Amino acid sequence: MRERNDLIKKIYILKECLNFPLTQRILDNAGKIPWEIIENKHELGEEIRTSEDPLKEGKKILLLARQKGKFVKSCPCTPNYIRCNYSIINLALNCPLDCSYCILQGYLKDPFLIIHVNLEDLWKELDVYLEKRKHIKVRIGTGELADSLALDLICECSKELITYFRKKKNAILEFKTKTLNISHLLSLEPSSNIVFSWSLNSEKVAAEEEKGAPSIRERLEVASRISEIGFPVGFHFDPLIHYPGWEEDYERVVRALFERIDPSRIAWISLGCLRFPPRLKEIIHRRFPSTKIIYEEFIPGLDNKMRYFRLLRLRIYRKIVQLIRNLGGRKIPLYFCMENESIWKEIFNWVPKGEEIEMFLSSPPSFS
Length: 368
Known about the structure:
Layout: E1 10-14, H1 21-29, E2 35-38, H2 41-49, H3 54-58, E3 61-65, E4 72-74, E5 86-89, E6 92-93, E7 98-99, H4 104-107, E8 113-116, H5 119-132, E9 138-141, H6 152-155, H7 157-165, E10 171-177, E11 194-200, H8 203-209, E12 210-211, H9 216-228, E13 233-240, H10 246-260, E14 266-273, E15 275-276, H11 278-287, E16 299-300, E17 306-307, H12 310-328, E18 334-336, H13 341-348, H14 356-360
Parallel strand pairs: 1-2, 1-3, 3-8, 5-9, 9-10, 10-11, 11-13, 13-14, 14-18
Antiparallel strand pairs: 4-5, 6-8, 7-12, 15-17, 16-17
Helix pairs in contact: 9-10, 10-12
């Protein structure tokens, strides 16, 4: 098992960001990674966009910039499907891993990695955001537009986020990752409202479609380590992908999960089948010509994303849910990401309304 801090080949710093404390910390942790000060990010964009694969090249470049918009937002989810009332912190953008199905390929304007270094503004914004919601539970995460821990060995932002959120009892902070970058966190005092989550898939999908990501076995090993020191853990089977032999492959992963992780230490597990905007198909075809995942039968969903037929999604969900319930028990909270009411009704026999799903997921396990 190896943590990765070698994915970045060069750091660019916007001149206005040079003196931020986070900038200095990143440069201290960068070791021999070269860095350069630039006036604006358009200089960088032109250089990368002339390459054969700008998205691939961009994953090697880190830009330190200032967040001039909002750090904290409600998750946009997807139109006409059940919302999970998630909130997101956009501290970083993009990911050094290169998963074939990643929606960020067609979603983000800039191809390079970005860390917003004006943390002082983040804390002020979070104070206001959480104060306005002090009478409800807020589930918030950093892993929507970036992998939560992929760049954390160089920026160490997770430590500050944990320090801030452990005092906010109306909030649950989730770090969502595919990486193994946890060694710098193992000495921290755990808190029941800080959840570390890993995206899981079959070993076949991980090997063929998740370039640069650790194996599923390695992810479960580090999840076990972080749970054993007292942090709740979560898992996201998303995207579930249909292919010959998927049943046996996913069963092996679920069995491996419960061989390594005590079910009582799991905060939640989410499920979601492969879906993508139509424009992403051409990007995937061009960048990953050997992949077969986009050539199944798909239909436009209520949000115009391409999805498996409803009956196939139901078959996949029934299989995974049955495995989880049989091997992990019935107390683990399960939920769907971006699914409609009929799917919820058929699989779980209930349809969350309003803030019900947030209440359902708002009590991660606490243990010593």
